Amino acid sequence: MKDLLIITNYYPPETGAASNRIFHLSQGLQKYNFNVSVLTPLPNYPKGRVFEGYRGRFKQTSIENDITIHRLWIYASNSKNKLLRLIAMLSYSLSLIWFFIWNKIPKTVIIQSPPLLVAFTSVLFLRSKKRKLILNVSDLWPLAALELGALKKNFGYKILEKIERFNYRHADLILGQSDEILAHVSSIYKHKNSLLYRNYPYFKAPLPTYKTQTSDKLKIVYAGLLGIAQGILKLCKELDYSKIQFHIYGAGAEQLAIQYLIKNNTELDIIYHGEVSRQKLHSVLTQYDVTIIPLLNRIYGSVPSKIFEYARLGMPMLYFGGGEGETVINKYELGWVANASDYTELNTVISNLDKTKLALENRIKIQKTALNCFDFNKQLKQLIEII
């Protein structure tokens, strides 16, 4: 049995795409005869506060589903203040250094990036000719931060670019969740070993169900992180509610602002349901006509994991983020697209939706496409063959 360590910022009981991705990866590798351990902070995402039951500890180690989970101290914060976010990343990096000094590290390590500084710390301290470092790149930082407006192209940005290049240079293998990510890495290091490794979900998909709505209004649902990148607050302000009702599930930085907007603008037909478990979400999504997957701006390299998860559920999708995600929606006929950041076109697309594509027959077709084309185990086997 081969020992393997996964270093990540996110892991259950935290929720979200990153947590789910690493959880399924660890479970999958364990089933294929790897002795997997996970190194992660004390759970705090997305609330920015360590969860109850984990507070007041510097480290907690547990065995969960035959996997050893080491949870380390972090100064937790989801503040918009860049300094506080930096302190949070540095605090976990210091905890990692402490762990590296006092513990034996396996010869195969998978490192999640971003966060860029956490990946840098791991690569810097673990690089060795005797160790294989696999960098799992889910977003391109600092480029994504620049496109979101969170960073400016100044001296600090150049430092982050150097850190990014350092990580790529010293990784033995790059896993990229999109072709754009792999193209970016190749533009920096042409012959770097890489593998397209999408964020495919792994769960038993219930058969699609759907009852034709009697209401004249189209029920659109968003479920997920209410963060800056998703732009749900702006979306709430820009949608035309004459023909739709907008339902929201999730939590994050924009949550309070969204709740305030709903409370003080009762003419907006928005219903906020709070945060629910992933399992419950899978059961409630089927009551809606279509799910929307937005990004505030087009982010190079980004392909939201919701595309693959909702396809597995047979949900028709309205994609509003541009880039490679748009290509996936069109190629596999999973729904509709509107140009990123063009809210006028978005409202036009919504008003002209072909409602025959909301029917149960099309949902079954979407699910079959997902089961055939977005196969978690097939992808995992490709990874195992090269590690």
Short summary of the structure?
Keywords: Membrane, Transferase, Transmembrane, Transmembrane helix. GO terms for molecular function: glycosyltransferase activity. This protein is of the alpha/beta class and 387 residues long.
List its traits.
387 residues, alpha/beta, Rossmann fold, 8-stranded mixed beta sheet, 6-stranded parallel beta sheet, 14 helices, 14 strands, globular
Query: Helical residue percent?
Result: 25-40%
Q: State the shape.
A: globular
Q: How many runs of DSSP E, i.e. beta strands?
A: 14
Sequence stretches where pLDDT stays below 50 over 5 or more residues: none
Number of domains: 2
> Would you list the SSEs in sequence order as H and E?
EHEEEHEHEHHEHEEHEHEHEHEHEHHH
CATH superfamily of the largest domain: Glycogen Phosphorylase B
Keywords: Membrane, Transferase, Transmembrane, Transmembrane helix
InterPro entries: Glyco_trans_4-like_N
Pfam family, one: Glyco_trans_1_4
GO molecular function, one term: glycosyltransferase activity
Question: Could you describe the 3D structure shown?
Answer:
With 387 residues, the chain is of the alpha/beta class. It has two domains: 2-201 and 375-386, 3-Layer(aba) Sandwich (Rossmann fold), CATH 3.40.50.2000; 218-373, Glycogen Phosphorylase B (Rossmann fold, 3-Layer(aba) Sandwich), CATH 3.40.50. It is 40% helix and 19% strand. The chain has 14 helices and 14 strands. Strands 3-4-2-1-5-6-7-8 form an eight-stranded mixed beta sheet, sandwiched between helices. It has a six-stranded parallel beta sheet with strand order 11-10-9-12-13-14, with helices on both faces. A hairpin with a 2-residue loop joins strand 3 (59-64) and strand 4. Helix 2 (82-102) packs parallel to helix 3 (116-126), helix 3 packs across helix 5 and helix 10 (306-313) packs across helix 13 (360-373). The two termini are 13 Å apart. The mean pLDDT is 91.
